[in-house]
């Protein structure tokens, strides 16, 4: 099949057109709703902007205000606190659950399903389950259970009124909600470890404990690095469950950055300022994503 | 051959591990207790939704004992609440997004994986860049944009931005690249054009990845909160995750009706999980093993 120069060119054009038909619908939506808002947001951050639209160009004033705004730093610190509290807890619990649920057991499938189940529930549902579990005076399950088990009636724990307990509640609720997903990732990594390794080890007389520390955990290190990064990234985006469970309270003790962005942008109508703060979050997340992709690529190469 | 021998390995391995020792019994008990603790909040929510007399229950344990009644469900589903409408909205939006996402993604991925055209690499890189964009950090700008496009408080506004993520394109492209070119060329020789090849060869062959992508799109959308929260202004447009908090906040002491609403919002997705459990588990692990 010899093609003339013109035929080749025509064929190439036809190829481009056909590809365009397949690509266009998605590319248009993607450009408008994913890519464009990045630039729109950057642009807006240099303006005074309310719900009526653009008001005035104010240069870097939004950024200057941000640096001087103690509530911004508090919210950023709260988000970071959430990352610091929840990441180690979720990593550890999902690893432990994976190891337990991956043992040979007649109930293996049931365990996996149960541990994963909360992950399927909507954030609104898990938040209200948490709130109702934690209500004081026998209205919530925990208080009720405590008293049914013999605790004195005057003894109460105010899970959402105390600032430390509010953090505990939010972190435990998040743990309960999300650990199942990471557990599944760990289980699939566990299943990729060749059985021969364990067989060889047990022939050599290695105890189960030695097998765990010398084979299983080292073999999981790549997965652990990946889950760690995914978990940090996801935790930096925390908003919904805190918003619904504590609304950032008591006071402002658990208010995360996205909530502050939401309040400034939509309740106080400072959309430009909200965009400037979003940009900080964007920057943090981009750096974390780049690190995560680097780890992921290293994993593929090996 | 390999399948058989690896199965034998597995048997030997599990056989070895099934030995009952004090250690394995302890681990079994611990696992069972943990599973129980994880399950209790869900079970408790469910039994609360089956009670009408919760104020008079003498202890926490009585929640789990009969009498049970479905009166709350009848009240929520038949009464003048908007819960049924929100349920419809949730299902409608999630189904449209899932179908749309699968269609758009499989088309675009097919082009990138199998068609010859200029700037193919460049377009792929452009999609890859989208993985770096955290939606949460651009939500304010997205709101302003959707407002200008008159999409706020419309179904289209709930649907279109949900179709614009590029994660699924990346997953599908890597799958489609693995489909042997011979199959596509065979179809071409039979006289099929690119559209027929897509419909008759690519779509059937990519069933596994389409199922995975659909399931995750559906679950993700069913539970999506931040964007619907900003976009849906009128109660008639709420999805369940947005409606539940406004509905529940009317109840200060009684929690049986709120828990019923929680259950109504959760049962469809739990049912969905039970039906597709195998695919979901496989999708999470992203292991290419054929089941």
Task: Describe the protein.
The complex is a heterodimer of chains A (302) and B (291). In chain A, a hairpin with a 2-residue loop joins strand 1 and strand 2 (53-57). Chain A has 302 residues and is mainly alpha-helical. Helix content of chain A is 74%, strand content 3%. Chain A has 13 helices and two strands. A two-stranded antiparallel sheet of chain A has the order 1-2. Chain B has 291 residues and is mainly α. Chain B has helices at residues 2-17, 22-49, 71-78, 83-114, 120-130, 139-148, 155-159, 167-177, 181-189, 194-205, 207-222, 226-231, 240-248, 256-285. The model of chain B is unreliable at 1-16 and 287-291 (pLDDT under 50). At the A-B interface, helix 1, helix 3, helix 4, helix 5 and helix 6 of A face helix 1, helix 2, helix 4, helix 5 and helix 6 of B.
Q: Key terms for this structure?
A:
heterodimer; A: 302 residues; mainly alpha; MetI-like fold; 13 helices; 74% helix; flat; B: 291 residues; 70% helix; globular; disordered N terminus; disordered C terminus
Task: Label the CATH architecture of the largest domain in chain A.
Answer: Orthogonal Bundle
Major sheet of chain A: order of its strands?
Answer: 1-2
Rg over CA atoms of chain B: 25 Å
- What's the number of structural domains of chain A? 2
- Percent range for helical residues of chain A? over 70%
Query: What is the fold named in CATH at topology level of the largest domain in chain B?
Result: MetI-like fold
Structural class of chain B, by secondary structure, is mainly alpha
The low-confidence runs of chain B, each spanning 5 or more residues with pLDDT under 50, are 1-16, 287-291
CATH superfamily of the largest domain in chain B: MetI-like
How many strand segments of chain B? Answer: 0
- The CATH superfamily of the largest domain in chain A is MetI-like
- Summed over residues and divided by their number, the pLDDT of chain B gives a mean of 82
Kindly estimate the percentage of residues of chain B that lie in beta strands according to DSSP.
under 5%
Task: Summarize the helix and strand pattern of chain B as letters.
Answer: HHHHHHHHHHHHHH
Q: CATH first level of the largest domain in chain A: which class?
A: Mainly Alpha
Task: Count the domains of chain B.
Answer: 2
Structural class of chain A: mainly alpha
Q: Briefly, what CATH class of the largest domain in chain B?
A: Mainly Alpha
Largest interface: A-B, 94 and 99 residues
Seen as an oligomer or otherwise, the chain set is heterodimer
């Amino acid at each position: 099949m010899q093609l003339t120069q013109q035929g080749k060119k025509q064929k190439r054009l036809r190829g481009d057109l056909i590809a365009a038909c397949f690509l266009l619908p998605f590319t248009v939506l993607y450009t408008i709703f994913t890519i464009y808002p990045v630039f729109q947001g950057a642009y807006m951050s240099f303006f005074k902007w309310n719900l009526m639209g653009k008001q005035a160009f104010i240069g870097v004033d939004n950024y200057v205000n941000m640096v001087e705004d103690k509530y911004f730093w508090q919210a950023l610190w709260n988000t970071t606190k959430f990352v610091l509290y929840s990441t180690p807890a979720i990593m550890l619990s999902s690893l432990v659950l994976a190891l337990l649920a991956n043992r040979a057991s007649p109930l293996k499938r049931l365990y996996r399903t149960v541990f994963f189940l909360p992950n399927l529930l909507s954030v609104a549902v898990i938040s209200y389950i948490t709130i109702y579990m934690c209500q004081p005076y026998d209205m919530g399950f925990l208080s009720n259970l405590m008293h049914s088990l013999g605790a004195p009636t005057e003894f109460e724990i105010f899970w959402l009124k105390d600032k430390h307990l509010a953090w505990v509640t939010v972190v435990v609720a998040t743990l309960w909600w999300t650990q199942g997903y990471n557990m599944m990732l760990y289980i699939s990594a566990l299943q990729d470890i060749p059985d021969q390794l364990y067989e060889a080890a047990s022939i050599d007389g290695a105890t189960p404990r030695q097998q765990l520390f010398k084979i299983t955990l080292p073999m999981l290190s790549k997965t652990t690095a990946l889950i760690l990064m995914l978990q940090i990234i996801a935790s930096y985006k925390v908003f919904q469950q805190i918003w619904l469970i504590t609304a950032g309270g008591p006071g402002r003790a658990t208010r995360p950055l996205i909530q502050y962005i939401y309040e400034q942008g939509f309740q106080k109508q400072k959309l430009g300022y909200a965009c400037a703060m979003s940009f900080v979050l964007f920057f943090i997340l981009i750096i974390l994503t780049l690190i995560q992709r680097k780890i992921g690529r290293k994993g593929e190469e090996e | 051959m390999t399948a058989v021998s690896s199965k034998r390995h597995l048997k030997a391995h599990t056989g070895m591990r099934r030995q009952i020792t004090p250690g394995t019994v302890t681990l079994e008990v611990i696992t069972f207790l943990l599973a129980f603790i994880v399950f209790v909040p869900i079970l408790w929510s469910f039994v609360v939704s089956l009670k009408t007399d919760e104020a008079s229950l003498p202890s926490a344990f009585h929640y789990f004992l009969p009498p049970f009644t479905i009166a709350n469900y009848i009240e929520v589903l038949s009464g003048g609440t908007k819960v049924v409408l929100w349920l419809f909205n949730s299902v409608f939006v999630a189904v449209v997004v899932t179908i749309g996402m699968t269609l758009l993604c499989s088309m675009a991925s097919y082009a990138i994986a199998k068609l010859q055209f200029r700037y193919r690499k460049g377009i792929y890189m452009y999609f890859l860049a989208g993985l770096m964009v955290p939606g949460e950090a651009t939500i304010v700008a997205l709101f302003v944009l959707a407002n200008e496009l008159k999409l706020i408080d419309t179904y289209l506004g709930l649907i279109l931005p949900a179709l614009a993520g590029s994660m699924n394109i990346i997953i599908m492209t890597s799958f489609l690249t693995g489909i042997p070119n011979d199959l596509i060329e065979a179809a071409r020789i039979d006289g099929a054009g690119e559209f027929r090849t897509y419909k008759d060869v690519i779509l059937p062959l990519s069933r596994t990845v389409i199922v995975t992508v659909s399931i995750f799109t559906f679950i993700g959308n069913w539970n999506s909160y931040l964007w619907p929260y900003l976009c849906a202004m009128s109660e008639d447009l709420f999805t369940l995750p947005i409606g539940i908090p406004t509905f529940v906040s009317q109840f200060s002491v009684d929690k049986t009706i709120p828990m019923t609403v929680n259950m109504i919002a959760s049962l469809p997705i739990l049912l969905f999980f039970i039906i597709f459990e195998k695919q979901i588990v496989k999708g999470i692990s992203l292991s290419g093993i054929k089941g």
